[in-house]
Design goal:
Length: about 525
Amino acid sequence: MYLQMKTWSFRNFGIVFIIFLLLILSVHLLAIKDQRDKQNEFSKELLAHAETVSTQLLNATDEAQKDNINSCDENSLDTIRKITHKYLYVYDLGVVENDAIVCTANWGRLPYPATLPMDFYRTNSGFLLYSMVSNIFPAALELDITRKNNVAAFTAYFAFQTFLDRNERFSFSIETVTDNHAFIYYQSPAQSVSWIDLSFVYDGVNTKLCSNIYGYCVHTFNHRFGLFYYNKSFVLFVFLIIFMFSFIISYAFRSYVYNKNSMEYRLRKAIFNEKLYMEYQPIISLKTSKIVGVESLVRWNDEVYGRVSPELFISIAEKINLYKYVAYQTATSSIEEMASVLKNRENFFLSINVSTYEITEENFLSDLKKKVTAEGFYAHQIKIEITEKIEVPLSMLSDFSNRARHHGFRVSLDDFGTGVSNLVWLTEINFDSIKIDRIFTQSLNDELKKCMVLSIMNLVSGLNKQLIFEGVENVDELDLIRACCDDTYVQGWYFFKSMPMLDLIKILNVESADTAAYE
Ligand SMILES: Nc1nc2c(ncn2[C@@H]2O[C@@H]3COP(=O)(O)O[C@H]4[C@@H](O)[C@H](n5cnc6c(=O)[nH]c(N)nc65)O[C@@H]4COP(=O)(O)O[C@H]3[C@H]2O)c(=O)[nH]1
């Protein structure tokens, strides 16, 4: 037992662990996807903005070129001031002489020519790009410069500020296509704090988006991808939630499997898929030794539970409120299956068992009558067996029995002697026959019980009711019944067990052939 529990919990823990891993992986992959989408979106925005800035710088230098600006006279300065004023992202325009800026629109003639650095990038269209140049103006400014011949345009220091101020958790840069010159580089502080290094597994979520107009691309770098993107306590919280989810999912999964194999679930399926079927147990007249009728008995053969006792599955069907389907399925199929036999033998009867539902459902008897009429045999050929074990008020039973007889059906009191009935039943309920329960049949050798049965028999024969002994299993029981009363009906494994309709028909045909030969 202990070992079983240990294996059980070990297996369950394994399931929880697998679900946990799968969930973590899914969340991780979703986070990666989300980060990639976000970085791509950011790149699009940044590239569009960079193109606007570049276009303004190029237009400004082009316009100055067209106006032949190559000296620092007042006219030239006025012209470049007007041009600078037009473009938001152009901080200043300067005149270059011998690789040094001599005057600018904002500052006029500089006190000394400011030499441009030797370190620049030359674009295919002949622009020279300088990064973060300081010491040009008599103020602490560090600006990018775009130069064409003798005109230099200064990028406004705030041109990319909104992007830098976002404090993205990934790094980004704007680099020339050949990747040897970076205009902007932002190193996210979040990227430099690494609580786990995964670079050996995966390079990271990196994106690259290039301009169709200019020779540069926007790059984003994210080495702390997926779940590692977020801070430790958040990730820990996510792990905890996922762990709880894994427990819930594994519990739900186990409940589902358990429910799927539960008898309730399987019975529900069997009822809706019409997997219940009927068998028939012959009832014999002791006087003629002939089969005078059959009792229909419902059967359920389940793949998991095997052949389940009708007493058990009927009580489950009642509990899960599906008995009404069983009631109609059993009545309908036994009537349909036995119709040919009943039509050919007017005195042959079919006993059907009923429970509380049939007794309390107003339309059951009229529906039954309609079915019998449609099949073309007589209502008196149907015997309704009311078990004594039923817990329905006597008045209701009596009313049901009266209505049944009014429709032409016969009524039998089943399992007599075992249930809740008392002798009042015998007078208050209108019935045609009494079935003595097998508890009495099988103990007729017990003097006391024999005495009781004899008394019942005397009582019942006085009431002019047909007696049926059920559960006759051997010849001794049969002899004892015969000795007490030979004008009675018997049913039991000594004669026949319940059987499918086709087997019953074969037996009835043999019996008819024997009778014909004897006559
Ligand atoms: N030991 C022994 N048993 C014998 C012998 N001869 C017959 N039996 C069994 O005794 C039961 C007789 O049916 P019941 O008393 O109406 O008792 C029935 C009846 O109350 C109920 N039942 C069966 N079919 C239906 C149905 O279609 N509708 C309803 N409402 N109840 C049904 O389930 C009960 C049990 O049915 P089964 O298991 O089929 O059990 C049947 C039958 O197989 C015998 O010689 N020895």
